[in-house]
Structure formats: C-alpha cells, structure tokens
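A student in our group prepared the protein record below, which I am reviewing. What it holds is a sequence and that sequence's fold in token form. My question to you is simply how this chain folds and whether the tokens agree. Do not assume that whoever made the record got everything right. I have pasted the whole thing underneath without changing anything:
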Amino acid sequence: MESSPGCIFVTTLLHYLFLAVFSLSLCEGMMVFTLFTKPFYNGFFHQMSFYMAVGWGLPIPIVVISVAASHDNYGLYYNEERWACWISEDNGAIWAFTAPMIIIVLVNYFFLIISVFKVYQLKMYKQKVTAEQQSKYKTARAILISILALLPLLGGTWILGLLLLFDSDSEPLAWIFTILNSLQGFAIFFFHVLRNKEVINVYINDSKSPEVA
C-alpha cells in the first residue's frame, strides 16, 4: 500500500512543525547558555536571524531526506487496524523524528545544567559583578526559569511518545500523551508571555503611549 499525496503532505507538515518546536527550544537553550557564559558577547550568536535560521531551517534537511528515503510508505502509520498520516515505524523512518528530538532534549539539559551552575556562581560572587552583567544575568535567569518549568512538559511528553512506540496498545498512556501535548501551547504562552515581565512591561508601555496622528 502506497501513501497518497495528501497524506504525504500532512505527514511532512507535522514532521517539520514538531521538529521546529524542538529546534526552537534548542535555540532558546543556546541563547540562555550564551548569556550566562559570555555576558558581553554581542556578535553573531545574539542575532535573531541566526536563531531563526537554526530554529526553522534545521528541520528542513531532516524532513527532505526522510521523504526521499522512504517515499513509498512515508505518511503511512498503522496502529490497531487503522491507518494514519504519520511516519511509518516499519522501516525505521520514525527515527528521523525521534533521534533529533532525543539529541535536542539532551543538549538542552546540558545547557540548563551549565546555566544553573552559573546562577549559583553569580550568587557566590555577586559583589564582583557589574551592573551591565547583573542586567543580562537577570534577563537570562528569567528565561531559564521558564525553560526549567517547560522542559519537563515538553521533554516528558515526548518521552511518553517514545514509550508508545513500544507499547502502542496502551490506551491510558495515549490519553496522557494527548492531554499533555494539548497543554503545551498554553504552557508556552503562560511562562513566556504572562509571566514574562519584559513582555508585560512592553505591552503596558505601548498601551499607555499616545497615538501619533
């Protein structure tokens, strides 16, 4: 059985967007890591274009290679006598999604461990830190707290997804995975917008600024 063009399109889109979520989280980890380890570095790694290129561009070659390598059954996922538009497990194509996900989660944990160490180091040597360093560390620490709150949800959810690969008949596991996945968008909005003082301050200042005729 061959996959239809529509199913290939849906699977390609899902594959790309899911990988983009993780590659963008990698960019966030890189940004926090750079802010803590190189507080005065304002070069290429602080340019938004770099993060956008990595976040949205990194998944493209992975998806393209996956589609080219398993074109005949890419988009045919079989589970419990039902077909779905997703990456097939039969020929190992599913690892084109799971392998990058695992690598990115592990790299992000490395970035977070180093960043948390830098936070405690900053507290120990607080008197030696300049005002500019304090400002950058304060911003980075706020982002770090948000990532620490989100990573168990983002990473933990897809760990459940990996378990479903080996136990696809587990309905409770599938329900937990679905519910946690559906909460990710709200969690990102809550921690990165509602609890972000810089975003709130910008919104308040914009709302108070007089309109120019």
Remarks:
- The chain has a mean pLDDT of 76.
- The chain has one domain: 5-208.
- The longest strand covers residues 77-79.
- The two ends are 63 Å apart (CA to CA).
